[in-house]
Amino acid sequence: MSAVRRIVPDRCCAVIVDLQDFFLSQVDKRFGFRIKANTGNLVRLLSYFQVPIVVTLERPVGLKGSLPKEIRKQLDNRARTFEKDFFDLCKDKKILGHLRRLKKRQVIIAGCETDVCVLQSCLGLLSLGYEVYVMEELIFSSSRNVDAAIARMKAEGAVFLTYKALYYELIESVEGPFNPKRGLKKFEPFPDDLPDSAV
């Protein structure tokens, strides 16, 4: 029997791939608003569990823009931002070096474009032995049909999950993330205004 893969805060990091103004401008405004709101909530959730976050920005950043300020303000001091030229973030030596120094084997992915940088980065991470978890509500593309890209990621071993599934997998208990009976690490009080599902 193969071992069941579960997300463990101490073993994971997250990557927000190229969530920039240029790409957001190519999707419906309401959908773009939801992407930004949900990604901001993802950042807050992961920051609570002290999960390091990597942000990539496709060059030229002057033309394509930076991470939206609503999300940027949620990042903590564990977050690092890198500019990249390659669609597969693993081909960038600085990004790959940083990921290796984090010593995390699980990577949670959000961002765009589903059929370009998200796909190629997932394939790169999987080829290096990482467990890859793709946030299905938090990836997008200017292309209408990304079914083939999603099927390929799944066939290669990427696990797709929703924000709600991740939320409850990390929380683990109705008592919240800290349960003295289980000897879990104690964090700050859990934010009451953090939604348990995507908008």
Number of domains: 1
Question: Describe the biggest sheet?
Answer: 6 strands, parallel
- From the N-terminal CA to the C-terminal CA, the straight-line distance is 37 Å
CATH architectural grouping: 3-Layer(aba) Sandwich
Radius of gyration, in Å, reads 16 Å
Q: Enumerate how many helices there are, as a single number.
A: 8
> Which overall shape is indicated by the principal axes computed on the Cα atoms?
globular
Would you report the number of β strands? Answer: 6
State the name of the first-level CATH class: Alpha Beta
Strand order of the largest sheet: 3-2-1-4-5-6
Could you list the spans in which at least 5 consecutive residues all have pLDDT below 50?
A: none
CATH topology: Rossmann fold
What is the ordering of alpha helices and beta strands? EHHEHHEHEHEHEH
Instruction: Bin the helical content.
Output: 25-40%
User: What's the mean pLDDT score?
Assistant: 93
Q: What class do helices, strands and sheet pairing give?
A: alpha/beta
Q: Which oligomeric form is depicted?
A: single chain
Strand content: 15-25%
Structure description:
This protein has 199 residues and is of the alpha/beta class. It is built from 8 helices and 6 strands. Helix 6 (114-127) links the parallel strand 4 and strand 5. Helix 6 (114-127) packs parallel to helix 7. The longest helix has 20 residues, at 29-48. The model has no long low-confidence stretch (mean pLDDT 93).
